[in-house]
């Protein structure tokens, strides 16, 4: 018998009950809750006269609707305000811990979980948000769910699931200077496509992944969903354990030793079999820039906008043509000649302290180009913001002409006031370049934080390795 | 949960791959704290020529005549014919809520995104995966024949074309049973309450730190 994959180990540790057809009742250790996908779940609970099975396993935070400008007056948009107030009221009623908008710990749900030690290796972690895959960076089984399942987890602390297929994405070798986890993520999606991971749980392995910091691993796992995989994960190693140690909600004392002993087993066995294996050479990965309206529409900074005539299929030709029309781009345009109107550095993909350091190191001593109308930096949490300010990163950004904002999801999806206007083009460190994602008619190009900062200063995309 | 058994429905073809849930229901409508009322804003940015906002009346908004849902021949369609990777992106259940509220009860595509696929079953919508060549053919037949309708039978797991051709599809037995009977997932799970309790007791011994909670 061959060894087990990390996915199988995590799965087996959480099985409560198996039906005859293999459908499994899986136990959920951590439930992250935010204001957008939870109100109808709480309403459902109340209508059925149910209460949360384990309020202590949940943690809530408002992030999608919160303003990133001055918050002393609350939320101006009454519809957004009601949604956040509804979260506050539901958490108070059911005894769920919430980091409210005025709490220094408030931030993007996928930033605060790891930051507080609420996300731990070996856990099953769910949230009514597709980017829950982020938490897989800790050797956890983490995936996004819909609102019906949010209600189900609140009521039962379990979910009905069938095991995913497993895919190992192996990235060997050393990344070039200026090439980041974001570029690995986009290169993988370019390789396997946005549906390449559908039905799979991805495990990222290989020497280039082991060399990544926890924040880099979170960026990578965050974008597993953009490859179609609900879950992405990285094996536990000393980097994982060092990151978790001492965090507010991490185990302490004897419990810590007991936990580490188990966590050290959370890796795929050497002879484990995966349903699919793909390999990438880290040294070949260049800084990536998306050109279209799906994350798989991606090339390198030295590439050009492709010609739909070269598309591999009729359906793709149709999609590429439509994407170029929406993006206002002509086939054959060098990526480095595309000018940007706005720059967004933030989101659950790239708003952690290392992301901000990376962007600041590029922006330091430079100025945002006059053709860029707005360049903004939105830290992932209040604690990330405070850390950045301690290091003086905020001054670097502000002196360069960036706006330094309060934490939240912001212009990744533009549910608050931060958005693109019709036709505006943005270099964005977020995760989705879908039509209208950052504002109706807005045109998004996904890049790493360093590439976004470089584009802000140059006014167009530029190879950060030459800066 | 809403039941699904047999549907005899007009088909609307949406000829685009990778239709994401942001396109199905744009973010501004996610500010609602209700489950109902999303139908008028289904595919809002493609369906209307102006910008939609929650609370704004949709009756006098200018329709995009080129968008397939606005074509009179597809009015009252209840079967959506789609391309690969339908429902990708955000996990928002508002997407199936909007489709269901509009009147879509079944979606046929060569593939679906995982989270969306799962969310459909929770809302009485049947997502059907058919071979890409079959879907291609249905697109051609649908576009060539006004009033093109399909019969979807969940119990028999068949899609029947107007010429009487029966195409079989796969569906997970557990999901099928729940959808056919409109069963409440939570109610079913609570039947396993003893097993959940036993699991928790065992885990508390093995991994006590998982029960120290978020309430410090």
Topology, element by element:
The complex is a heterodimer of chains A (467) and B (216).
Chain A lengths: L5 H7 L2 E4 L5 E4 L2 E4 L5 H9 L10 E3 L17 H17 L2 E2 L10 H8 L7 E4 L13 E4 L2 H10 L1 E4 L3 E8 L8 H12 L7 E6 L1 H4 L3 H9 L8 E3 L4 H7 L8 H11 L12 E6 L6 E3 L7 E3 L13 H14 L14 E4 L7 H11 L10 E4 L4 H9 L2 H8 L2 E2 L20 E4 L14 E4 L2 H10 L9
Parallel strand pairs in A: 3-4, 3-6, 4-5, 6-7, 9-10, 9-12, 10-11, 15-16, 15-18, 16-17, 18-19
Antiparallel strand pairs in A: 1-2, 2-8, 13-14
Helix pairs in contact in A: 2-5, 6-8, 12-14, 12-15
Chain B lengths: L5 E8 L7 H4 L19 H4 L31 E3 L12 H9 L3 E4 L4 H8 L4 E4 L2 H13 L4 E5 L4 E3 L5 E3 L4 H9 L3 H6 L2 H14 L10
Parallel strand pairs in B: 1-2, 2-3, 3-4
Antiparallel strand pairs in B: 1-5, 5-6, 6-7
Written account of the structure:
The complex is a heterodimer of chains A (467) and B (216). Chain A has 467 residues and is an alpha/beta fold. Chain A has helices spanning 6-12, 39-47, 78-94, 109-116, 147-156, 181-192, 207-210, 214-222, 238-244, 253-263, 314-327, 353-363, 382-390, 393-400, 449-458, and strands at 15-18, 24-27, 30-33, 58-60, 97-98, 124-127, 141-144, 158-161, 165-172, 200-205, 231-233, 276-281, 288-290, 298-300, 342-345, 374-377, 403-404, 425-428, 443-446. In chain A, the strands form five sheets. Chain A has a five-stranded parallel β-sheet with strand order 5-4-3-6-7, sandwiched between helices. A five-stranded parallel β-sheet of chain A has the order 17-16-15-18-19. In chain A, helix 12 packs parallel to helix 15 (449-458). Chain A is globular, with a radius of gyration of 21 Å. Chain B has 216 residues and is an alpha/beta fold. Chain B has helices spanning 21-24, 44-47, 94-102, 114-121, 132-144, 173-181, 185-190, 193-206, and strands at residues 6-13, 79-81, 106-109, 126-129, 149-153, 158-160, 166-168. In chain B, strands 4-3-2-1-5-6-7 form a seven-stranded mixed β-sheet. In chain B, helix 4 (114-121) links the parallel strand 3 (106-109) and strand 4. The radius of gyration of chain B is 20 Å and the shape is globular. The model of chain B has no long low-confidence stretch (mean pLDDT 96).
């Amino acid at each position: 018998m061959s060894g087990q994959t990390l996915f199988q180990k995590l799965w087996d540790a959480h099985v409560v009950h198996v039906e005859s057809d293999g459908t499994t009742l899986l136990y959920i250790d951590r439930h992250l809750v935010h204001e957008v996908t939870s109100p109808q779940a709480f309403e459902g609970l109340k209508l059925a006269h149910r209460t949360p099975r384990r309020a202590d396993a949940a943690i809530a935070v408002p992030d999608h609707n919160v303003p990133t400008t001055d918050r002393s007056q609350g939320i101006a948009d009454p519809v957004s305000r009601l949604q956040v107030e509804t979260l506050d009221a539901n958490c108070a009623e059911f005894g769920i811990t919430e980091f409210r908008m005025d709490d220094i710990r408030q931030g993007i749900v996928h930033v605060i979980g790891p930051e507080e030690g609420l996300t731990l290796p070996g856990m099953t972690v769910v949230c009514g948000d597709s980017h829950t895959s982020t938490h897989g960076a800790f050797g956890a089984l983490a995936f996004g769910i819909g609102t019906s399942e949010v209600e189900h987890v609140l009521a039962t602390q379990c979910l009905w699931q069938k095991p995913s297929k497993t895919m190992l994405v192996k990235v060997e070798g050393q990344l070039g200077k200026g090439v980041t986890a974001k570029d690995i993520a986009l290169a993988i999606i370019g390789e396997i496509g946005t549906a390449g991971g559908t039905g799979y749980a991805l495990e990222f392995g290989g020497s280039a992944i082991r060399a990544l910091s926890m924040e880099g691993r979170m960026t990578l796992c965050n974008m597993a969903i953009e490859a179609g995989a609900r879950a992405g994960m990285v094996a536990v190693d000393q980097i994982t354990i060092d990151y978790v140690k001492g965090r507010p909600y991490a185990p302490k004392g004897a419990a810590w030793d007991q936990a580490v002993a188990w966590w050290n087993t959370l890796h795929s066995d050497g002879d484990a079999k995966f349903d699919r294996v793909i390999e990438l050479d880290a040294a070949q990965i260049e800084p990536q820039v998306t050109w279209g309206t799906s994350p798989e529409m991606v090339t390198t900074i030295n590439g050009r906008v492709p010609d739909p005539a070269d598309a591999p299929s009729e359906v793709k030709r149709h999609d590429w043509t439509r994407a170029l029309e929406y993006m206002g781009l002509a086939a054959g345009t060098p990526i480095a000649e595309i000018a940007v109107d706005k720059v967004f550095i933030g989101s659950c993909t790239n708003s952690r302290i290392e992301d901000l350091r990376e962007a600041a190191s590029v922006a330091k001593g430079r100025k945002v180009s006059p053709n860029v109308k707005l360049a903004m930096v939105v830290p992932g949490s209040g604690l990330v913001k405070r850390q950045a300010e301690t290091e003086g990163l905020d001054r670097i950004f502000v002196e360069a002409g960036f706006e330094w904002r309060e934490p939240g999801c912001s212009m990744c999806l533009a549910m608050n006031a931060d958005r693109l206007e019709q036709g505006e083009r943005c270099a964005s460190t977020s995760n989705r370049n879908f039509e209208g994602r950052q504002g109706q008619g807005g045109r998004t190009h996904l890049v790493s934080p360093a590439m976004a900062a470089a584009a802000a200063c140059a006014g167009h995309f530029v190879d950060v390795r030459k800066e | 949960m809403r039941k699904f058994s047999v549907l005899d429905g007009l088909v609307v073809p949406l000829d685009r791959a990778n239709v994401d849930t942001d396109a199905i229901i744009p973010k501004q409508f996610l500010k609602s704290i209700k489950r109902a009322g999303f139908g008028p804003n289904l595919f809002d940015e493609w369906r209307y020529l102006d910008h939609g906002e929650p609370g704004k009346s949709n009756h006098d908004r200018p329709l995009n005549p080129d968008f397939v849902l606005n074509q009179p021949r597809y009015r009252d369609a209840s079967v959506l014919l789609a391309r690969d990777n339908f429902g990708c992106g955000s996990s928002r259940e508002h997407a199936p809520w909007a489709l269901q509220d509009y009147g879509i009860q079944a979606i046929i595509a060569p593939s679906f995104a995982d989270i969306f696929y799962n969310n459909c079953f929770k809302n009485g919508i049947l997502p059907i995966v058919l071979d890409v060549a079959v879907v291609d053919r249905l697109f051609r037949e649908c576009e060539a024949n006004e009033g093109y309708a399909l019969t979807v039978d969940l119990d028999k797991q068949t899609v029947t074309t107007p010429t009487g051709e029966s195409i079989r599809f796969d569906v997970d037995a557990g999901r099928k049973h729940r959808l056919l009977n409109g069963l409440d997932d939570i109610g079913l799970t609570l039947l396993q309450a003893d097993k959940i309790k036993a699991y928790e007791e065992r885990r508390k011994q093995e991994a006590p730190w998982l029960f120290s909670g978020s309430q410090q």
